[in-house]
Amino acid sequence: MQRRVVTAVLAAAALLVTAGCSSGDGGAPDDGKSAFPGLGSSTPAPSSSGSPTEKAPPAKGSVKVVRTVAEGLKTPWGLAPLPEGGLLVSSRDAGTIVRVDEKTGRKTELGEVPGVAPAGEGGLLGIALSPDYASDHMVYAYFTTASDNRIVRMLYDAKKPPGEQLGAPDTVFKGIPKGVIHNGGRIAFGPDKMLYAGAGETGDRGQAQDKKALGGKILRMTPDGDPAPGNPFGDSVVYSYGHRNVQGLAWDDKQRLWASEFGQDTWDELNQIKPGDNYGWPVVEGRGGDAKYHDPVAQWHTDDASPSGIAYAEGSIWMAGLKGERLWRIPLSGTKASAAPESFLKGEYGRLRTVVSAGGDKLWLTTSETDGRGSPAKGDDKILELKVS
């Protein structure tokens, strides 16, 4: 059931291709570089500059809510579709992972992740499946502890009783700075089978420009947590820097990496990520026009977005907005937006946290009304199935 009646539609869309957006989780308390520099010569690295033969999607798209998949989720954050069917969902505050039957909505708790210390914007955040999940059944998780943010992997055994299906966590990477705000948290395996993580600057702005610090970065590592081959700064997991709080990571059909980022008071951003590039924070928020810093592809005022998860489908990036309470579509042509971003579902389901491709023209979308900044209604939080174009 829809939460609110839509009262405005796309009022600012035409302005937003020239504009990037917002504060924390919704408020504070082309140069031809290879996309994957570690790929061997036997596997040609995809071009990151786009091709003039790439066909841009239509300027106008559409979104249809097909159904509500599940209800009654508490502080959902990460979402990982299983190849055998089902959706794994992390709860930020409970520190648990549940499996949702996408056909019936039935929820089964896998277990609680030990060591999670939820506070503010921290807790159990992003989850991802091992690139070898079919053989190793490993689930990766990014979470906040009492001392840091870290990434672990756990064996998922569906044959065990509910609540006991997660094996003991094996720490893959630790020491990512933690804070009450800006913990980042999104993790995803790229087409190169390397693990990428968005690490926030925790409110300590200086970290973002310090290439030796882990905060304010996109990190790239092997599945075992070592610096990935070909990373731009030698024996370091740092892949790009000058970020404030990256919470969305997705690759398009040409294997180019895109990231959404919270701004502070003025501009939220969608960036196309190049290894070793500086994305400007805290010197620049949004477009600065300075060649030292990589400008965003699109930007939004903070009230209109506060972006979290992103996904790629039907030639566009789809970006979930928290404070903006809407889903943004950014049609792409190469590494640029081919038309003005469009917003959908404005105010209908409240805060939107995570969007994931469900294959073809389908997306999974989670709401985030129980995260302390929303206004929960009956059934919150939800997973929605969307059909998009």
TrEMBL record:
Lineage start: Bacteria, Bacillati, Actinomycetota, Actinomycetes, Kitasatosporales
The keyword Methyltransferase appears for this protein: no
PANTHER family (UniProt xref): HEDGEHOG-INTERACTING PROTEIN, HIPL1 PROTEIN
Protein name, UniProt field: PQQ-dependent sugar dehydrogenase
Top-level lineage group: Bacteria
Disordered, as annotated region: 22-62, 365-389
Keywords: Signal
Organism listed in the record: Streptomyces siamensis
Pfam families documented for this protein: GSDH (PF07995)
SUPFAM superfamilies to which the protein is assigned, alphabetical: Soluble quinoprotein glucose dehydrogenase (SSF50952)
Signal peptide: 1-19
Basic and acidic residues compositional bias, start-end: 378-389
Domain Glucose/Sorbosone dehydrogenase positions: 73-373
InterPro entries: 6-blade_b-propeller_TolB-like (IPR011042), Glc/Sorbosone_DH (IPR012938), Quinoprot_gluc/sorb_DH_b-prop (IPR011041)
Comp. bias regions, Low complexity: 37-52
